[in-house]
Amino acid sequence: MTNVGSLATKPLFGLPLAELWFALLFFIFGMFLFLDGFDFGVGVLFATRTDDHEKEQLLAAVGPFWDGNEVWLVVFGGALFAAFPSVYANLFSRYYLLMFAILAALGLRGLAPEMYEEREDDRWRTLWGYSFVIGSTVTPFLLGLFVMNWLIGATGLITPVGVLGGLTVLVLTVVDGAAFLGLKTRGALRDDMRNRGVRAAVGYLGGVIITLGSIYVTEPALRSSFRSPLIVALVILTATLIGIYVVALRRNRYYAAFAATAALVFGLVALVATLLFPYVDRTAGLTIRDAIISTLPLNLMSIMTSVLLPIVLMYFVVLYSAFSGPIDTEETYR
């Protein structure tokens, strides 16, 4: 049995806590990218709508969820700071302008729907409608740029791999948003979302291939990782999931399409984590073992997380159960 004294000297139950926290960190990011990803995707697809009623339908679809989904980004930042504080400091100092840009875009995305509903004036709604689209488009692009720069250890803000990764993540959010709207809308609007989702899925597969090719060509240090069976399996899985997603949408199996989207998101996150491993900050040369905090706080934090994380997950189960099913045709954001 683990006692209080051993908490300061040995990992909890002999577990590889450094590796588990690395995996947990990317799981949390995957939850954010999947759940807030469909919010971003809906924001991008908002730009395709000209009918005011359809715009209200899209806003009503994400209304109960988007602010809760952003919690996962806060949890990701907190987990990174708590488990790998030196990496947190390095990343936020290296990419601080990018971080501020992400926060600004997130703020715009959150503010825009609220302001959109304040007036019936056409010019006002056009302004905030564009703001909603811009915030929803810029945020996932910058997140993809950040993650790819983190992966390759870039010291600058803009890199070819980062830009390709940003575009790929952006398209993935459209895939996510189209599947979500398949669950939440009806009729002609749902049919159009289905068609756009199919096209986005094909674009996402192309983005993954081009981004991985760019990493292979420009990052010699990562080339050996591409021979890993896990990397090969994840790429094959991605192509398979795209096929499942497309077939599911064409057969109006929207829950299956949404589940395939979840697997695509976590597959992408797993791909990044596998390429990064065993490093957690390639630029600083920090491996997971180098950067993890000392044993006692790591053990205590692991105990608290094992209690709190299931509660957070249960909250989201309740939230999504309460607002499941298609929205009413007359429902609005407020």
From TrEMBL:
<protein>
    <submittedName>
        <fullName>Cytochrome d ubiquinol oxidase subunit II</fullName>
    </submittedName>
</protein>
<dbReference type="Pfam" id="PF02322">
    <property type="entry name" value="Cyt_bd_oxida_II"/>
</dbReference>
<feature type="transmembrane region" description="Helical">
    <location>
        <begin position="201"/>
        <end position="218"/>
    </location>
</feature>
<feature type="transmembrane region" description="Helical">
    <location>
        <begin position="20"/>
        <end position="48"/>
    </location>
</feature>
<keyword id="KW-0614">Plasmid</keyword>
<feature type="transmembrane region" description="Helical">
    <location>
        <begin position="69"/>
        <end position="89"/>
    </location>
</feature>
<feature type="transmembrane region" description="Helical">
    <location>
        <begin position="158"/>
        <end position="181"/>
    </location>
</feature>
<dbReference type="GO" id="GO:0005886">
    <property type="term" value="C:plasma membrane"/>
</dbReference>
<feature type="transmembrane region" description="Helical">
    <location>
        <begin position="255"/>
        <end position="280"/>
    </location>
</feature>
<dbReference type="InterPro" id="IPR003317">
    <property type="entry name" value="Cyt-d_oxidase_su2"/>
</dbReference>
<keyword id="KW-0812">Transmembrane</keyword>
<dbReference type="GO" id="GO:0016682">
    <property type="term" value="F:oxidoreductase activity, acting on diphenols and related substances as donors, oxygen as acceptor"/>
</dbReference>
<feature type="transmembrane region" description="Helical">
    <location>
        <begin position="230"/>
        <end position="248"/>
    </location>
</feature>
<dbReference type="GO" id="GO:0009055">
    <property type="term" value="F:electron transfer activity"/>
</dbReference>
<feature type="transmembrane region" description="Helical">
    <location>
        <begin position="132"/>
        <end position="152"/>
    </location>
</feature>
<keyword id="KW-1003">Cell membrane</keyword>
<feature type="transmembrane region" description="Helical">
    <location>
        <begin position="300"/>
        <end position="323"/>
    </location>
</feature>
<keyword id="KW-0472">Membrane</keyword>
<dbReference type="GO" id="GO:0019646">
    <property type="term" value="P:aerobic electron transport chain"/>
</dbReference>
<dbReference type="GO" id="GO:0070069">
    <property type="term" value="C:cytochrome complex"/>
</dbReference>
<keyword id="KW-1133">Transmembrane helix</keyword>
